[in-house]
Fold this sequence. Notes:
The complex is a heterodimer.
Chain A: H1 10-31, H2 40-60, H3 98-117, H4 125-155, H5 157-177, H6 184-191, H7 199-216, E1 223-226, E2 231-234, E3 243-244, E4 249-250
Antiparallel strand pairs in A: 1-2, 3-4
Chain B: H1 3-19, E1 25-31, E2 39-45, H2 49-59, E3 67-72
Antiparallel strand pairs in B: 1-2, 1-3
Amino acid sequence: MATTTRTDNAALFAILSSLADNKQAVGRRYAYWCNGAPALEAAVAAAAMTQDELGHARTLYPLLDNFTQAEADPTQIEPETRTLNYALTYLDNDFSGWSDFVATNFLLDTALTTFFEAAQESSYEPLRQRARKIVHEERIHQMHGEGWVRRLANAGGAVRAALVASLQRLWDETLCWFGPNDDQTMQQLYQEGILDATPDELRSRYLQKIMPILNSLDIDVPVSFDAATKQWHVNAPLPWSSWEAVGRRLE
Amino acid sequence: MSTSEQTSDVQGTRSRREALNENRVWHVYARRKYDEPLHEIGNVMADDVELAKVYARSIYDEFSWIEMVIIPRETIVTVIES
Lengths: 251, 82
């Protein structure tokens, strides 16, 4: 009988669970739009991105079995039997329209990619390997998200209004996903070299990626630009009182 | 729903659709080997060049291309008309 040596790391187990649940949920939400996108080309792209997201989830869930924390309830490490949900609350319900797809693609998917970029030199080899592949595949998702944000914003009227509403609904929860800067889980990963950034640094890297697009389109979000440091900063408090640290989601 | 509401709803749907209508056609060229030339494999419609690149990659993904380019239809100059 083969014996398995499991790693005891609650922080890494928690983050991998959240990443896998979010990828799985994003993939399932994207899947609804494989034949409902505004154009045939966009539908094919949605199908390709669905496959990618579900594929990322499929490479992350098996990692959970390598941890001592999986022994408490083995049913929670299989996506088919898992009852816990560490994906964003925003993903609990069907998208109300294409603008929700675009907001998820542009905001949430980019946030998760920011995490994987910070894990490309991870001290935890299985994450390092997966992070590099995911970052590579996500480049085209980012192009798609940015392209559609530009399209919907420039269309004006009700189309632009729907996009802005979708972005606003997802905004706080996406920024919260990185955790407060003293988040024990993320701080432990940073100290163990599993990640190369703290929550505040991850949030900052994320804002530098998305803000040039939002700013160029005059989409108003609670972020300001510091001319001295040439960095974007959140200028409104995030709703930490309703953020649930275990599930990394808003209640 | 009244007739006027239905009419405005139809107009709203139509204007949204028109607002998102893609007008630019891009011809997609690709090749699988270094010793073969680029050849046309299809086209995509997108007003945004970045979206056109995404669409070309996701629609024409049947082979591991070593090179793929897209060319806007309006830049093509006809020499001999068919």
